[in-house]
Amino acid sequence: MLTKKAAYNVCVVGVGAVGIELLRVLRQRRFPISKLTVLARSHRSIEVDGTSYEVQAVTPESFRGQEIILFAGTEGEKGAAVTYAQEAIRQGAVCIDNGADFRMDPKVPLVIPEVNPEDLKQHKGLIANPNCSTIQMVVALGPIHRQYRIRRIIVSTYQAASGAGSKAVEALAAEMAASVQKTAIPPPEALPQQISGNVFPQIGPFQELGYTSEEWKMVKETQKILHDPSISITATTVRVPVEHAHSESVYFETAQPTTIQAIKKLWQASPGISVVEGPNYPMPIQAAHRDEVFVGRLRPDPTQPNAFVCWIVSDNLRKGAALNAVQIAEALIQKA
């Protein structure tokens, strides 16, 4: 458990797309760091925005003396937290894991600080960071659920290449360059299909009832964060040729009557949400490298009472991953 201090020993595990963003967010938010340790599978030096970091090869001994550990996580496979978190906790650290390994563990809180900060009280040294597409949707729908109780959600996502890691971003750039140069497009490796000039409705392996793992994450994680397994949720997750920021079309029904004006008023009063009004609407090109969850195009379903549709966009590497993890750490410090 953390005690109130002026600064903390902080450790970042992983230097892929999320790990680099963690380093960026920690610096930008001036997180109170006494000593920063950066770990990965192998020793190397990296540079992020002009700042050099010495990356050490991770070992069980690496976690001695650490107080806050941020695991960058690896979607779709077992992350470093599975191997190292429990030992780090035994040594007194608090671990925040961006991977998928512990999200649905009933003993591990799954937290979005703007939505369910009270769940931090339940942690026993390990806190899970939700999936990127879940985070931005629940930031927007959380205030509505608290006030009017949401009973049904249908979401379709349009997810950027960076959600699949830095190699997927590199693949998008290489494929786009080949298309412009009219040369052969490289065969897909980082993603299941060609991404340039294409969209495909598969993020993660296919699972029960033909839904992918990403789609089931959105269902189960949303219900856990909102403490309401009765919410009916259907998700379709789609990869699009965008580098940064996920977009979502979200249909939702409320149990209690409400209005467009009341929902906008809730959003405007809620931290982390930026409402885009009028004929404008949120776009990835504007949301990239920004912290906010942008919402717009709110409109009623003319065929169904108490039903609405909106458009949500957020940077998947920031609020969808690194920023949310750092905000969890900040909330822990505030409660220490």
Question: How would you briefly describe this protein structure?
Answer:
With 336 residues, the chain is an alpha/beta fold. Helix content is 30%, strand content 25%.
Sequence-ordered SSE layout with sheet pairings:
Elements: E1 8-13, H1 17-28, E2 33-40, E3 44-48, E4 51-57, E5 68-71, H2 80-90, E6 94-97, E7 126-128, H3 132-148, E8 150-159, H4 166-181, H5 213-225, E9 232-239, E10 246-254, H6 260-268, E11 273-275, H7 284-287, E12 293-300, E13 307-314, H8 318-335
Parallel strand pairs: 1-2, 1-5, 2-4, 5-6, 6-7, 8-9, 11-12
Antiparallel strand pairs: 3-4, 8-10, 10-13, 12-13
Describe what you observe in this structure.
The protein is of the alpha/beta class and 336 residues long. The protein has 3 domains: 8-130 and 321-335, 3-Layer(aba) Sandwich (Rossmann fold); 134-160 and 199-316, 2-Layer Sandwich (Dihydrodipicolinate Reductase, domain 2); 168-198, no CATH class. It contains 8 helices and 13 strands. The chain has helices at residues 17-28, 80-90, 132-148, 166-181, 213-225, 260-268, 284-287, 318-335, and strands at 8-13, 33-40, 44-48, 51-57, 68-71, 94-97, 126-128, 150-159, 232-239, 246-254, 273-275, 293-300, 307-314. A 7-stranded mixed beta sheet has the order 3-4-2-1-5-6-7, with helices on both faces. A 6-stranded mixed beta sheet has the order 9-8-10-13-12-11. A hairpin with a 6-residue loop joins strand 12 and strand 13 (307-314). The longest helix is centred in the C-terminal third of the chain and has 18 residues, at 318-335. The protein is globular. The chain starts with 7 loop residues before the first strand and ends with a helix. 44% of the residues are buried.
